[in-house]
Amino acid sequence: MQRKSFSLKCRHFRNNGCQNNGKHPVLFEIFGEMWNVQVRLGQGVSASVYRVSSGRASMAAVKEFQVDAQGGDYGYLKERSVLENIQGHKNIVTLYGVFTNHNPLGIATHCLLLELLDVSVSELLVRASNQGHSMWLIQHCARDVLEALCFLHREGYVHADLKPRNILWSPDDECFKLIDFGLSFKEGHQDVKYIQTDGYRAPEAEVQNSLAQAGLEGDSGCTSAVDLWSLGIILLEMFSGIKLKETVKSQEWKDNPAAIVDHIFSSNSVVYPAIPVYHLRDLIKSMLHSNPSSRSTAEAALISPFFSIPFAPHIEDLVLLPTPVLRLLNVIDDSHLYNDDEYEDIIEDMREECQKYGSVISLLIPKENPGKGQVFVEYANAGDSKEAQRQLTGRTFDGKFVVATFYPLSAYKRGYLYQTVQ
């Protein structure tokens, strides 16, 4: 019997990040082991973040703080202190350790060794192409961020810089996590005058920032309510697919933000089921009261009816959010499933091909619905799964173009092979 085989179709891939151009470290010595710098993931005023790997193929992120010209280490000490005090929650980035890097010029820089995360909500918004995200994705993100905020606020902390770029997807934990606690503070002990990012800044933070710029002191510091305001704007952007920075600066918004929220929802609700739309709209409006004392808390927001509605992911969601499980579509004809010899040959071919990109833990091709004829490949980690998706997308199997998406590991493990929304 002739075995089915993959054939390569030439493609061009863009590396997501800046290549090492000699202007940043090539190696970090971390706890006596050399880690290679693969790519710079981001660069800010006070720090740069790199993706690094060790000889054991471990992956992590390093946040290297710039040398302070005045000799202070405030930014590093601040973020380290906050992270050390809030470790252990699944929706907050994990701090593995801290170390000092000595570069060839003899300059020492302070570094944080952090859990490596993946795509940010900011990147997801760019890829949404002004269409808005699915209810499944919005709900998933909203719940994860609110869980993190509940924990933070119970511990007495305010994040104070919640924005799409600071919410990242964890492929291995299959959830969104908060990063960047450089502006965070203990409620009632605000030691940062200028908080939050333009476009996600609560009204009371705008007032406080204006007073600080004028050299004046406000009556009191900001509270955890500023984080709920930021999340409300983020969810509104995810629903609409539109950046709202200019909108929230307008006088119309300042006069009546609820009316603009209603308008955005009435303009987009035609593509969504009515009841979930109403619940999401009301949830967002509860976070966007101008008076912080009227704003919903994170705990109250989590009991919104919006979170009681089950949603299935769109196929686009499973392309955007990596997991250790790869799902291959448009591969198997029904006729292949009922010939035992041919079915076993296909299983063998699939496993052989997929093992080229990483360690395959399991492989499943259901013979019945749901999932009939789809190929599910569980890899040892999401990095292998991502490489397989990159390599297999656009290839052909038995003359058919392969479509490769990810699939939730949690659902796969319990045998839940739901039909995704096209």
TrEMBL record:
Start and end residues of each Protein kinase domain: 35-307
Family matches, as InterPro entries: Kinase-like_dom_sf, Nucleotide-bd_a/b_plait_sf, Prot_kinase_dom, Protein_kinase_ATP_BS, RBD_domain_sf, RRM_dom, UHMK1, UHMK1_RRM
Superkingdom, natural source: Eukaryota
Stored Pfam families: Pkinase, RRM_1
GO CC terms: neuronal ribonucleoprotein granule; nucleus
Enzyme Commission number, as recorded: 2.7.11.1
Gene3D superfamilies in the record: 3.30.70.330, Phosphorylase Kinase, domain 1, Transferase(Phosphotransferase) domain 1
GO biological process: positive regulation of translational initiation; regulation of protein export from nucleus
Record bears the keyword Repeat: no
Residues the entry annotates as binding ATP: K63
Nucleus keyword on record: yes
Subcellular location: Nucleus
UniProt keyword annotations, A-Z: ATP-binding, Kinase, Nucleotide-binding, Nucleus, RNA-binding, Serine/threonine-protein kinase, Transferase
Catalyzed chemical reaction(s): L-threonyl-[protein] + ATP = O-phospho-L-threonyl-[protein] + ADP + H(+); L-seryl-[protein] + ATP = O-phospho-L-seryl-[protein] + ADP + H(+)
Molecular-function GO terms, alphabetical: ATP binding; protein serine/threonine kinase activity; ribonucleoprotein complex binding; RNA binding
RRM domain boundaries: 324-402
Function field: Upon serum stimulation, phosphorylates CDKN1B/p27Kip1, thus controlling CDKN1B subcellular location and cell cycle progression in G1 phase. May be involved in trafficking and/or processing of RNA.
PANTHER family with a match to the protein in the record: SERINE/THREONINE-PROTEIN KINASE KIST, SERINE_THREONINE-PROTEIN KINASE KIST
Protein name: Serine/threonine-protein kinase Kist
